[in-house]
Amino acid sequence: MSDPIRIFVCEDDHRLRAHLCRLVDRDQSFHRVGEAASAEEAESHLGSGDVDVLLLDLELPGMDGLELLSRLPGPPQGPEVLILTTFADADKVFEAMRRGAAGYLVKGVDADKLLASLREVAAGGSIIEPRLARRFWNLFEASKGGPDPDALGLSDDEVTVLNLVARGLTNPEVGHTLGTTRRRVKGHLESIYRKLNVSGRVEAVLKATAAGLVEL
User: Fold this and answer.
1) What CATH architecture does domain 5-139 belong to?
2) Is the pLDDT of residue 138 over 70?
3) How far does the chain reach from its first CA to its final CA, in angstroms?
């Protein structure tokens, strides 16, 4: 049996936070390692490599979720980050993705989808909530430059990996499809992020899409 996925919950609404914690605690595939009502409190528990996924509210008292996201190291020292937001926060969600968040859900999502999304993010996947997707892509379209595939400098293997990631495959699923290891896939992604000067999967896919290398 694999080790449980280590979850940290950061949400200032105490009722919602208690609800989220109960959902995580009831599922044996997870181990909740902590909870916090503020970004400052959460930051003191993160960055030591003992949290797999941070479930993060963007609207927090004091330091907001975006600032916390910018201050966290990336995986494996820091956690993957799944944003829990409201429908009105499309601009902030877009910025969160640019800063390395692995996905987002709109508050009120049903329990099964929430838990499945935590598993997906922990496995190296990305989550895009349909109700915000159109607004999210519109923000990206407004900010992108013109197509320039040659300027990206990606190898054929890296382009293949990005296309599979864009289809929603997790790192292990990409490795299985390509007949390679999860570690090799992770190495490709790290190279992609460096070449594209991005912080995470979603921004990498969007930038490659703008250059015509990926079809969503």
Assistant:
1) 3-Layer(aba) Sandwich (3.40)
2) no
3) 35
